[in-house]
């Protein structure tokens, strides 16, 4: 039987953290872009929404949108957009039905869309303290207790039951009850068991190796169709949501090594389907690790949220490395710099963005276009949670004694430790630079342990502690600020004016990927070939445009495997992930491989190294992956 046994590690409350520096600018760009404009510009989440009592979309899109709009508006203090989000929240809070269910009546039988709305309401409660949220939860628990035994979770709700358990875990902490524990037992019985899949990950190739989509699609229907092709277990967004499943089970059970299981699942999925950007290929189902296959934007932001839950639960530093890899590479690369259009699918090696048949499992010919809703509108609704939830993923606390910076980005925190206020400003241009400064600003001295994660790619790091306007602090002379395993623990009485500077060494290094390909990395950033892009507008929908992108310079380069790249650090401009003003540029050498050409409108099969690079050596430029819309990020290589 379930028993609540969650440890005392938590992400900081939304009220305790604010963005600074480049991250604040990124959030502002997002609000000036699609997130701020969709309510007016896209009917799926506009005033006809079923989640406002209208006759429009009544499923996941409204809740998906709010899951990003609400925290974004809150962090930016943007009253106008916060009020738009509140309209949906207010309507939802008043929508509870007699049986305890809530949401649009027209979709009342659907479970899944409710899970997303519960996640929104958790954030709203954290911001506002509004007790009506607990009343809605209490009604929904009552509803599920009666309903699930006769109408169990199926399909999406079964595959994504981890999100429901996450919400119930949160609710249990607010208002413990036997009822919730009984419900958790029942949900575990009905849920798709990701722990079983992660223990021995069965899909070591793309879904097309196991299933012929056309055949399955034409010959089977309904539940049989799901079963025949393992539809939900191979669905990429389900899988990335599923990584949180072992973590949330560990809040209630101790019958297995949940932390190990989650790690095992992520490692296996990464090995067989991962690309250098941190994304998992899935177009729409797991697609193998070829860099020309597609990775869906929903899967990027859902993976990021699962990692936040894993970090809160296990404090696993590998999860933090993975979160930075996704947020600093895959996420910015698949949304335009003005945040006005996005792709459904991105490619690690993306050399042409256009409407054309590609080797996707079953996504359509528009899936890698930039636009309002290329292929399908789920990502249009769901992409907004990426950056705001990332902010909440930066800092963690363990009880009243430990504050941990797990993921690095500029921000300001203000929280209570042992009843005393702690104020820290984190100044940094990480991930573009390796200098991270923590300034203590609280009036009263407070004793606690500040923990800093040492990233997995970092071979050596340095910490400086001093007082503003004075020399090195007494404590620094103790020389014991060495990493203890994967982290550095700094325990002392922190006073106003104390400063900690952390320098994780960022060296350019190569990592190996599918077909023996090489990726060039420096710190958390992966680098891609700078290809000149020609953007062509192909469609206008209200205020949104769709684009194709054509390469104006060659892309078929192999890299000299042994070379040293020259690193040029530039200013981090108003648009952090800008191509024209990329904050870091690497220069090195490459040779073109003339037989490496387009196949099915993507970069063809990657030549295995050492490749026969038949063209003369040239100087090439690499930019941060997140700054590119066309690129090679997994290169063939040759020996010089
Ligand atoms: Zn999507």
Automatic annotation (TrEMBL):
Q: Which residues form the Non-reducing end beta-L-arabinofuranosidase-like GH127 middle domain?
A: 406-503
Q: Name one GO molecular function term.
A: hydrolase activity
Q: Which InterPro entries match?
A: 6-hairpin_glycosidase_sf, Beta-AFase-like, Beta-AFase-like_GH127_cat, Beta-AFase-like_GH127_middle
Query: Cross-referenced SUPFAM superfamilies, in alphabetical order?
Result: Six-hairpin glycosidases (SSF48208)
* Key words of the record: Hydrolase
Residue intervals passing through the bilayer: none
Give a yes or no for keyword Protein biosynthesis in this entry.
Answer: no
- Could you name the domain of life of the organism this protein comes from? Bacteria
- Membrane as a keyword of this entry, yes or no, is no
Q: Which GO terms describe its biological process?
A: carbohydrate metabolic process
Q: Where is the Non-reducing end beta-L-arabinofuranosidase-like GH127 catalytic domain?
A: 290-390
Pfam families per UniProt: Beta-AFase-like_GH127_cat, Glyco_hydro127M
Supply the name of the protein.
Glycoside hydrolase family 127 protein
Provenance organism:
Candidatus Pullilachnospira stercoravium
